[in-house]
Amino acid sequence: MSFKIKPTSLQMKIDTLAWLRFSRGCRILATEVGYSGWIADVWGCTKDVSIEVEIKTSTGDFHQDFSGKKKKHIYYNEKSENTYMLIPNYMYYLIPDNKRFIEIAEKYLKENYPKYGLLTYHPDEYLSVDKIRSVRRVTKLHSKEPTKKMKDSVLCRMSTEICSSYLMIQELTDRVKDFMHSEVSSHLEIMKQLKIDTE
Fold first, then answer.
1. What DSSP character marks residue 139?
2. pLDDT tens digits for 71-102?
C-alpha cells in the first residue's frame, strides 16, 4: 500500500524559489516579502517583470486568501496606471497536484480573477524546476517594469534570508561538532574503564 505525504508550505516555497530563479530567470527573489501592505509567499524580479506566487496547501487556505485579502485582489485588478508600481506583473497560485483541488481553483480563478495563473506542485520530481507545472495560463496585470522601490523590498528580504540561512548552518555545524566531541569523549571514557577493569 502506497500513500503520498502532503507537501509542506516550506517545501513548496523552496522549490518555487528555484523555479523562479532557473525557469523564469529572476535575479532577485525571496519568500515572505512585505510589499503593498501584504506579505507575498514568494516574490521574484527580472529586469523587466515581477512575479508573485501565493502557496496554498488546502482548499480552505486557498479561499481564505481571497476572503481575507479582498482589498489586495481588488487593487491588483484595477485598471489605474497609478497603482502599477505596487503590483506584480504576474500573479500565480501554487497548489498541490490534487485533481479536486485543481478543479476548484481553476473554476474560481476563471470566474473571479481570470488573469491569475495556476501552478501545481509535483514533489516526486527529482529537479526543483520540474516540480512546478503550469495548469492555467497567466496574463499580465500590467506592462510596467519593476520599480526600484519594489526591487529594494525584495533585496532587503533576500539579504535577511541569506544571513539567517548562514546563521542556521553555523548553529547546526556547531551542534554536530559538540555532539561528535561528546560521543568521542564518552567512548574514550568507556575504553579507559574497560582497560582498568581488565588489568
1. -
2. 889 888 876 555 566 789 999 999 999 999 99
Place of cell 496554498: 56
Give the integer Cα–Cα distance in Å for 177 and 182.
8
Considering the domain boundaries, does residue 193 fall inside one? no
Model pLDDT for residues 112-128, shown as the tens digit of each residue:
999 999 999 999 998 88
Determine contact, residues 81/88, Cβ cutoff 8 Å: no
What CATH number did the domain enclosing 71 receive?
Answer: 3.40.1350
Please name the amino acid found at residue 4: K
What pLDDT score does 135 carry?
A: 96
Any residues with CB less than 8 A from the CB of 108 and at least 6 apart, and which? 62, 63, 66
CA angle 102, 104, 105 (to 5 degrees): 65
SS3 state at 106 = helix
Domain count, the chain: 1
DSSP 3-state of 32:
strand
In which domain, by residue range, is 56 found?
A: 9-160
Q: What is the pTM of this model?
A: 0.83
